[in-house]
Fold:
Amino acid sequence: MAKKKAIRDAYGEALVKFGKDNKDIVVLDADVAGSTKSGLFGAEYPERFFNVGIAEADMVSMAGGLSTTGKIPFVNTFASFLMLRGADPIRSSICYSNLNVKLAGAYAGLSDAYDGATHHALEDITFMRSMPNMTVISVCDPIETEKAVKAAIDLEGPVYLRLSRADMSYIYDEDYEFELGKGVTLSEGNDVTIMATGYMVHKALEAKEILKEKGIDARVVNIHTIKPIDKDLIIKCAEETGAIVTAEEHNIHGGFGGAVSEVLVENKPVPQEFVAVNDSFTESGDYEDLLDKYGLQARHIVDKVEKVLKRK
Amino acid sequence: MVKKKKQELIQLSNKFRQRLVEQLHAIQTGHPGGSLSATEIITTLYYHTMNVSADKVDCENRDRFILSKGHAAPMLYLALAEKGYFPQEEIATLRQMDSILQGHPCKTSTPGVELSTGPLGLGLSAGIGMAMGERLSGRDTTVYVLLGDGEIQEGIVWEAAMTGAKFKVDNCIAIIDNNGVQLDGTTNEIMPMGSISEKWEAFGWNVIEIDGHDVEQIASALDEAKNTKGVPTVINAKTVKGKGISFMEGESMWHGKPISEEEYKQAMAELRSE
Structure:
């Protein structure tokens, strides 16, 4: 079995690593530091770690204040609470004032599986990408997580980092050059492009193998930066393969698939199918079982590929 | 406070009130009531207490002011213009297209505005964050946050109150413009607050009660707050909504109502006679 690592561990370790030399980095959490792994930073640099209690809006607004003094605050809680409880200061303080705050949404998608629908985050991409000035990043493996943390530190302005509770195998090695705003073609193919983000990148790679057996040559692209999205790559894939399937651990409305279709309809309209949660609330259960029930496994991607090819 | 300074602050406050009435009358939009109750507080902060200068807008050692009750923006703009942050002529563009003066404070539009505000309740958390950042950086600066008494009905304010006490953020000073009136009526009608001072005390804050229209009391309370270490301070400033204009005083309808020609004449006559 391939080596795996929990994304939250990779994230927490990245904070510790980059916080060592960059003293401007400060970290906030709202009583879930043990879960988000921001507590790793807190253990190393307690003077730069603030646990504000169960008060997400306060935490986000505080981070805005901290950023105006030259600090680089990383704000941590579950993605669901960050987006919902933090929405007001995220919009009115952080984004409107264009503040240098990094919002780390832990446990995005269905990854907090057993906690159920209240703790699943399936609307965060929609919300975050509709905020002016916001950069939205969604990671697919432990290496990409570390590189994304570094990119967020280096970028001046608000960033949303979409993280996961899940263990993920390594897609990349240490040499991976992460470039904000640039998608990565993981596997070439000519019949169709599967564009995926986050954990769904793994499912897309799995789907490619199943499709190969069916004689379908699928291209697999990882889109880690959902905003600003890699327009050129999307147009290129549409031109070269003529059909797109998007895959995201998110509600079907307004998320990653929506971002891709916005580019397609304006530039190079080709058939597109969406692999996403079909506008429903979810439930408690085993993570992989949930992904299956809500249409987010490799077999669902295969179905959508076959469907889109008929429309080509 | 020397007599000369006191006279200066009183005269400036009166001048700001007149300009406010002129301007809001001219544009037929904006919030007179909450600007008039905050006049002396904002004037004293900018012309007595705070270490700020328009020549050094981004100076590292400057004090910060956050107008958490963002609807009092016109009064903040008048103080900033008088300080020289932007030309006085800009005041006439308030709330109009392409203006640097938005309906509520906008950090990226207006020199001297430290944080965008408007949706009530967000300023104190941000002020505490700013103060903690300044402290971490070893700078001896103070952050002042002006809240409305209606505004503190927002739950996030009490989250911030807990945070301020936990982290002993004594370089963030909250001031409550306690004018007793909110948009829909008096605070007693809409959401009775009980004892505001006791509430803050219960949250671990040092509380100072003053008359929020007395510049000497404001100045000395701000000094006392600055010298209080180890706990954050809140100044509960009793004020009158619409202060200085008889028919506006204590009337919730003047939270945000256009000023008619007749009302304008009367208001200006009252202010000029002071």
About this structure: Chain B has a mean pLDDT of 96. The longest helix of chain B spans residues 3-27.
